[in-house]
């Protein structure tokens, strides 16, 4: 079975890329979209750091970080981000909702937010039209037992209807963020196999684009 290694370290080693991990602003004094703004600020910092040299960049995030991937892709597509080229987005178990936000989520969202806030429902009525989003290839990773599977698949279908390039990977019999459960990967062959499948598909997606 696969040795449990943090997922991002696995595919970084596999595809020989450099990673930049953000530590976003959080807390009641910094409600969303503060952390999303932080992520895009880091992206712009990378643009400045590139010094005129062209570089290809992927945005990847899991859970609410998957929502962040969509947001960064939206902003990057609407602005001149040369010399960087955002060539793909990977949203792993994104936290898209079509239900009333939980108490926990309400503590993070701007006051008075509803279930259609663009951060948690980019395919909702309050969100910008997906047709304006750049044709950025997206990999959406879904766990079969995840409570968010319906909205994750809805997002994927709406993106396809808007003529976006979307690939969907479903990990059978797995739950939300299963790949972070090191004990399960060590002790359960099914979990280990699905975690390895996840890494292989991410690696393939990056190499393909």
How does this model look, in words?
The chain has 7 helices and 4 strands; from the N terminus they run ααβαβαβαβαα. With 209 residues, the protein is α/β, with parallel strands linked by helices. Strand 2, helix 4 (103-108) and strand 3 (138-143) form a beta-alpha-beta unit. Helix 1 (7-15) crosses helix 7 and helix 2 (34-49) packs across helix 3. 33% of the residues are buried. Belongs to the 'GDXG' lipolytic enzyme family. InterPro entries: AB_hydrolase_3, AB_hydrolase_fold, Carboxylest/Gibb_receptor. This is Alpha/beta hydrolase fold-3 domain-containing protein. It comes from Hevea brasiliensis (Para rubber tree).
DSSP strand content: 5-15%
**What's the number of helices?**
7
Global geometry: globular
Reported for the largest beta sheet, the result is: 4 strands, parallel
> How do the SSEs run, as a string of H and E?
HHEHEHEHEHH
Radius of gyration: 17 Å
Count of DSSP E strands? 4
Strand order of the largest sheet: 1-2-3-4
Helix/strand-derived category reads alpha/beta
Helix content: 40-55%
N-to-C span: 29 Å
């Amino acid at each position: 079975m696969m040795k449990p290694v943090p997922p991002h370290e696995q595919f970084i080693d596999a595809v020989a890329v450099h990673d930049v991990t953000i530590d976003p602003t959080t807390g009641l004094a910094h409600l969303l979209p503060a952390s999303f703004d932080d992520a895009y600020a880091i992206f712009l910092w990378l643009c400045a750091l590139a010094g005129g040299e062209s570089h290809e960049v992927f945005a990847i995030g899991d859970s609410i970080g998957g929502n962040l991937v969509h947001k960064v892709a939206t902003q990057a597509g609407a602005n001149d981000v040369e010399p960087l080229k955002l060539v793909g987005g990977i949203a792993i178990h994104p936290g898209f909702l079509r239900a009333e936000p939980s108490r926990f989520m309400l503590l993070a969202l701007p006051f008075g937010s509803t279930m259609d806030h663009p951060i948690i429902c980019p395919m909702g009525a309050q969100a910008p039209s997906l047709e304006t989003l750049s044709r950025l290839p997206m990999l959406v990773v879904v766990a079969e037992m995840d409570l968010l599977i319906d909205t994750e698949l809805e997002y994927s279908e709406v993106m396809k209807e808007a003529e976006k390039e979307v690939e969907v990977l479903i990990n059978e019999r797995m739950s939300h963020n299963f790949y972070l459960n090191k004990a399960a990967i060590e002790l359960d062959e099914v979990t280990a196999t699905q975690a390895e499948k996840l890494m292989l598909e991410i690696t393939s997606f990056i190499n393909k684009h």
